Amino acid sequence: ILFAIIFFGGFVISILSFFVNSIDICRILSKISYYWLGLMLYMALGLLISLITRFVFKIILKEKYKLNKAQRYTFIFVIIFTLLMNTYGIYNGHIIHITKYQLITDKSVDNLHIAFISDLHLGYNVGLSEVDDMVNKLNELNPDIVLIGGDIFDNEYLAIEKPEEMIKLFNNIHSKYGVYTCLGNHDSREDYDKNHWYDYMNVGVYSDEKADGVESVVRDTLDFVFAPENANGDVFIFLSQVASDYTATGYNVTPEQLDWLGEQLEKYKDTTVYLFFHTFLKNLEKDGNFNMGEG
User: Fold this and answer.
1) 273-276 and 214-218 as β-strands: parallel, antiparallel, unpaired?
2) Distances in Å between the alpha carbon of 159 and those of 128, 153, 213?
3) Is residue 289 helix, strand or coil?
4) Is 216 helix (H, G, I), strand (E, B) or coil?
5) Mean pLDDT of 240-255
6) In the chain, at which end, N or C, are there fewer CB atoms within 10 A of the end residue's CB?
């Protein structure tokens, strides 16, 4: 009964969040929906353990007394387990973890410090406080360049808490060569106006006055190459998804984009190239990946 109440209650709240016009109310309902999903997953796991326990005692051991006692303990276990796991998940979700990698090369070069982040999913559940923490962590690392691997947004643009202040926070990121990103599947949905990307993202890429090192810009699909001087000759290629279509006939990148990518890889074949794309690229005929197109 408890499981049914939580399931249907959370389901109704999730549905209501799609029909509410107030952004503030929608933010509250969406957060409840996120926590509801976590509760449901762990409660479902607990119920599965309960059913297995019931089967063991009733069918195999055939002990009714122990069955009733086991069910009581299992119920207590499910409640405690669900609360503990969700509490840990909420806490851990607000902790920024830094993983450091050292790339070894045969080239005689200076150290290049790259900070890479991805999947910020700004919206109802991730807002100003989380971004402020992220910016502070990035600046403590003192990177040469900051790269974002897509999915900056999660919900519709209006879901972002105080967009003007959010822009100011991103502008506080300090690095030698700048901050650059590509579009992920969430960023390429119809909810977003591409002009916002031109105005606020990848400054010095899509305007007439290009930043030093910006090359081969494809404005329609937002793809570009960044080859800064004094960066050991390294090249950064940014390939963006143009759609969020995971149907059997859909493409997330176009054949023209893959042709462009092939040209860039050929052009810089004798250089260390860092390719940034949100998901993955495979050959359609060889690997059967219909989502990414042929390439």
Assistant:
1) unpaired
2) 12, 9, 34
3) coil
4) strand
5) 75
6) N
| Alpha carbons 195 and 227: distance in angstroms, whole number | 25
Q: What contacts 117, CB < 8 A, 6 or more positions away?
A: 134, 138, 146, 147, 148, 149
Among residues 257, 273, 260, which one has the least CA distance to residue 188? 257
The model's pLDDT over 169-200, given as tens digits with 9 standing for 90+, comes to 888 999 988 899 988 888 776 656 677 777 77
Q: How confident is the model at residue 3 (pLDDT cuts 50, 70, 90)?
A: low
Alpha carbons 118 and 238: distance in angstroms, whole number: 13
The percent helix, strand, coil of the chain (3-state, each to 5) is 45, 10, 45
Name the residue with tokens 């005929």. 285
Ranges of beta strands (E only) in the chain are 114-117, 145-148, 179-181, 214-218, 223-226, 235-238, 273-276
SS3 81: helix
- Rounded to an integer, what distance in angstroms lies between the CA atom of residue 254 and that of residue 150? 17
Is the pTM above the cut of 0.70?
yes
Would you state the pLDDT for residue 246?
A: 66
